[in-house]
Design brief:
2 copies of one chain form a homodimer. By secondary structure, chain A is an alpha+beta fold. Chain A contains 17 helices and 19 strands. In chain A, the strands form 4 sheets. In chain A, strands 12, 13, 14, 15, 16, 17, 18 and 19 form an 8-stranded antiparallel beta sheet that branches. In chain A, a hairpin with a 4-residue loop joins strand 18 and strand 19 (about 390-395). Chain A is globular.
């Protein structure tokens, strides 16, 4: 590993500006910022900058930019694709937004919240709830992931089918540009057609165009009626058909609709304490349907019963249970939430976060599972995820008894295998996890030509010295 | 007016490429393309290019770009801000997308439609309905406005409170860039995090970055239960309170929530045939609430009655009627839809399409009305529009008996007067109409500095010769 160093004049200026709380240089303080959550990468950095205000960040960015030092924004460091860690050169400075963690304003009439980048997603949800409202973005890492991170990566999660991705929940941004300029774009307007949608450019740019420092976010009325079902379904087509039946009945009530394979649920039952199958018999395919409405008299339980009864008569649903309590609903959700942990305990696995048009989800699951079993005999496909978004985590668990390292050495073969099918189905090689460092080499073949050319032109225009999160997104 | 000319070699090449249907040069054919809908501007052009395919357009753009000839995209030519007409120089070529008018695909499982730029909005709505679905974008000009136009301007309209602006209804784009390159971005995915959100950059760019040639659009389940109310309310605060009561009861059911002033409704009753006040007594403030659900058993009429009864008891609502039939609902909607025409018949008027945070709508209406009456004694404010979006058309009708030209000469004073209040309320000087040519001189003071700098950098990066719709958006 090279010895990370910083120009002495810059280090001095940053020390003066930020003080000991705002600048970490000791190896033990820096260490947690160098590796990603999945342990795919381990980088090096001379220091971690932790500004306490937007102005402090802007000043630090100006200093780094003048010294042509590259910067890596980091929120909760929960990227699935190595998007928030520095490379191995030791020349990239990590900039943690963790201390920008205030909720600046919350307004239940406007239904908006203004939160700084370092606010943890769960804290934003809680703040909305305290104001009697709902901030609907919800995902596995919500206890660590931050507002800046979920916006920079346009995170999805479980409620996208109803509320959209992080992008759709954002009304305005404050950002620090690569030259240290502050953009004050924290508007909280539902309509504002005044030039280019810069806010949408920063969302999903994965920190390659600057730092999101705060955001105006949409809130919604909280749920006053809910219903949650867990169903064994006949096959992948039945899972999709059941989604359509619920969507057509009341699209606004479908808060989440998740597919799980028999294999994945088996792993959860076997490896996670406290998880039991809530149905009498094992099946090969399950769905979780979560309904919610702000109307106390929405009658969602009756509606769910009616839809499920009809679907049973049509042979789509084999068995189903409706949660009798919030506690039971939470236990059912745990089956879905513990899929990543259960896979981890079952051995080595490779993740494929892909999407296709909704109608093609059954084909995606069937064709990918078959191709993966052929590619690596004995391997166990664990497809699960968001049917309503066409976003399936087409994961693959190693064969029993195979050496984990030998299996992981096939990671790119596995991704290529799934991606070839995804391409054939008009899908995308990254649905909600983004590109980060892991998928940069796929960009040329999937987004090359005019599209990648336009992206590069924008990148060069806003970050001419290439200082923002280099090595991410672009091949 | 200067004599519009084109380099002879370019004219020859375009004639060869496009044929007589694709290239208009006769004065009488060109004339309809030179003036905007509001008759604010009248430009000149040597020809109107009307390509029949995306490839033909790309070829024509390449030819124009090589000759450094500026291009003005035109859809239905219904811009409120002169965004789609050429300037007076006679050197800008009009490019009409009218012949790109196919619906390429429609899928009720994916709930997506792929429509070319020249498809008229109403035709897109009809195609969705024929497939058993809903394409919810709805606005006064829907019989002429095109998909390319509503996306390029990020149009809003009546259903934004439920379904968002045009931007939120778009999943992917096909576009021709300023150099003639075709971007094939017609993805129909709900999740796709693969680099910068180019599609969001083109939406709302008002044709200054290239031509949108086709779009993948979201559809929704059609409404199976509806309820429509017309209410006299106590004041502006009561209008907002009533909106909140409906939103909190069932935000997903509120398809539209429109404010109208007593003055505006008076104009409609007086000047438009077939419009009558559906209540027993005149009031100073009205709202129209339109509820819809895909659930046939949503019970929206009962819900509306319950909310209105409570609101009457609270003194918010003075009188209310619920439509007894679709025909009556249509008659009530006409009161809102005919506001622009009624104002036109009442004399000269100035439009202010502004937005503020939802909580500040009452302040906006009250303060602007008072300031405008002071600015021009005898003038008649006609505020109306979308309370739930914070988007009020803060229009002003001339004083009775005043010379129309003398009143219109005060247009910029009137806009400045409203905009000063909008700024104080953290609002925007253009909510849904965009910048076009009319509001370019406001950009520096509202979006100047870092934001406008970033916009210019992007514009220069993608359109280095400044050929796309010059004189629009940028000051």
């Amino acid at each position: 590993m090279p010895d990370p160093t910083l120009p002495p004049a810059l280090l001095h200026a940053l020390t003066q500006l930020l003080g000991p709380r705002g600048l970490l240089t000791a190896a033990e303080d820096i260490a947690p910022h160098l590796a990603d959550w999945r342990n795919l990468y381990r980088g090096a950095t001379p220091c971690v900058i932790r500004p306490g205000t937007t102005e402090e960040l802007a000043h630090a960015v100006t200093l780094c930019a003048e010294a042509r030092v590259a910067m890596v924004p980091q929120g909760g460091n929960t990227s699935m694709v190595g998007g928030a860690v520095p490379d191995e050169s030791g020349r990239q400075v990590v900039v943690s937004l963790a201390r920008l963690n205030r909720i600046r304003a919350i307004d239940p009439v406007d239904m908006t919240m203004t939160a700084e980048a370092g606010v943890v997603l769960k804290a934003a949800q809680n703040a909305a709830a305290e104001a009697g409202c709902l901030f609907p973005l919800s995902l596995g890492a919500e206890g660590s992931a931050t507002i800046g991170g979920v916006l920079s990566t346009n995170a999805g999660g479980n409620t996208t089918v109803r509320y959209g991705n992080a992008r759709e929940l954002m009304l305005g941004l404050e950002a620090v540009l690569p030259d240290g300029g502050i953009w004050h774009g924290l508007r909280r307007l539902r309509k504002d057609n005044t030039g280019y949608a810069l806010r949408h450019l920063f969302v999903g740019a994965e920190g390659t165009l600057g730092f999101i420092t705060a955001a105006s976010l949409k809130m919604f009325p909280r749920a006053r009626d809910t219903a949650l079902g867990f169903c064994a379904v006949a096959d992948e087509d039945a899972a999709l058909s059941l989604f359509r039946r619920f969507r057509d009945r009341d699209d606004s009530a479908v808060r989440a609709f998740e597919y799980m394979s028999g294999q994945g649920v088996d792993f959860c039952v076997r490896h996670i304490e406290g998880i039991a199958l809530p149905l009498g018999h094992r099946a090969d395919h399950y769905v979780l349907v979560d309904l919610a409405s702000s109307r106390p008299d929405a009658g969602l339980r009756d509606m769910a019963e009616a839809v499920l009864t009809e679907a049973m008569e049509a042979g789509l649903v084999l068995d189903a249970v409706l949660a009798e309590s919030d506690a039971q609903a939470a236990r059912i959700w745990r089956i879905r939430e513990e899929h990543p942990e259960a896979q981890k305990r079952a051995g080595a696995s490779v993740k494929n976060d892909v999407s296709v048009p909704v109608s093609r989800v059954p084909d995606l699951i069937r064709r990918s599972s078959e191709a993966l079993r052929t590619l690596i005999p004995g391997s166990r496909p664990v497809p699960f995820g968001h049917i309503g978004d066409g976003n399936i985590h087409m994961n693959l668990e190693q064969p029993e008894g195979m050496d984990a390292a030998a299996f992981l050495a096939r990671s790119h073969d596995i991704m290529d295998c799934v991606n070839a099918i995804v391409r054939d189905l008009d899908g995308s090689f990254s649905a909600e996890h983004g590109i980060g460092r892991l998928k940069t080499d796929m960009m040329e073949s999937w987004r090359g030509g005019v599209e990648l050319g336009a992206m590069r032109a924008i990148k060069d225009a806003l970050d001419p010295h290439g200082l923002m999160n280099p090595g991410k997104v672009f091949p």
